Amino acid sequence: VMGGVHGNNRLGGNSLLDCVVYGRITGKDACKTFLPARANVPLKELALGRTEPNRRAIVVGGGLAGFSACNTILENGGSVLLLDKSAFCGGNSSKATSGINGSCTKTQKRLGIKDSNELFEFDCMKGGSKNPQLIKTMVEASGPSVNWLMDNFDLDLSLLARMGGHSVERTHRGKERFPGMTITYAEMQMAESISKALPDRCQIMNKARVTSLITDDEGEVIGVRYTKDGKERTEFGPVILATGGFGADFSKDGLLAKYRPDLLKLSTTN
Fold first, then answer.
1. Is 14's pLDDT higher than 80?
2. Which residue has the higher pLDDT, 77 or 226?
3. Three-class SS of residue 227?
4. Is the dihedral of CA 217, 218, 223, 227 positive or negative?
5. How many CA atoms lie within 13 A of 227 on its CB side?
């Protein structure tokens, strides 16, 4: 999970969107695939202390993607340990200023904006994306994800703008000056509230640097090794990596060149 996972950050507002979308997708998959089945519980009720402990997933990274995965795991009945190497959570998404994109949202319908998933997909492909399937997945989840943010975190996303590359107004923000910070911190505060009310369900650990993945004899990832307070520790469970995108690392020996050389020619404002 990372910003720019769809291979196109040229369209303003997509960097926040893919963090939320793919954070939620991986969170749901962790619950369905690895964790025991449980009844869904609204986030606001979890923050008040409703539910009991459960086996937990591991989220690495405390930015918007990480907290989207974390909150999705919690609302789908799972438990979670979130690890971040920094002293404070927030990540790169907290600095985003455009807003978050979404097609066919409640805000668009209220303001009479005619949009469709097909039009949003077209705009993304026209902007230079090379992965139609990831674009389709992101776009189809965009409207529900924006609505999810408004419904669960009391976020004001009532204003729309038409950013560069878009055919219609679909970039959502509120009256707050920095939407990236507003959205990310709302998710952080929800997870922190749940961690205080239900520490067995949610634990957030800062200054915890993940050093390696633990695999079984068949090569499947089953946990992580991390350092905290100078000591190496281990945690077992399904792992979601939400450690950030490649940013502007165009060096010859960088992660982008090693794993996604096809993206080297794409421009970035990161």
1. yes
2. 226
3. strand
4. positive
5. 7
d(CA 69, CA 77): 12
- Over residues 161-214, the pLDDT tens digits come to 999 889 999 999 999 878 999 999 999 999 999 999 999 999 999 999 999 999
Q: What is the largest CA-CA distance in the chain?
A: 56
CA 254 to chain centre: 23
β strands within 155-241, DSSP E: 159-161, 171-173, 202-205, 208-215, 221-228, 231-236, 239-241
Q: How confident is the model at residue 146 (pLDDT cuts 50, 70, 90)?
A: very high
pLDDT at 128 over 50: yes
What is the spatial distance between Cα 202 and Cα 193, in angstroms, rounded to a whole number? 9
Which CATH fold topology does 14-245 show? FAD/NAD(P)-binding domain (3.50.50)
Integer CA distances (angstroms), 238 to 29, 78, 155, 245, 257, in order: 10, 11, 30, 21, 28
Report whether pLDDT(254) > 70: yes
For residues 240 and 74, the answer to whether their CB atoms sit within 8 Å is no
For the chain, the domains span: 14-245
pLDDT at 12 over 70: no
Q: What are the tokens at 270? A: 């990161």
- Single out the residue of 32, 43, 26, 17 nearest to residue 191, CA to CA: 43
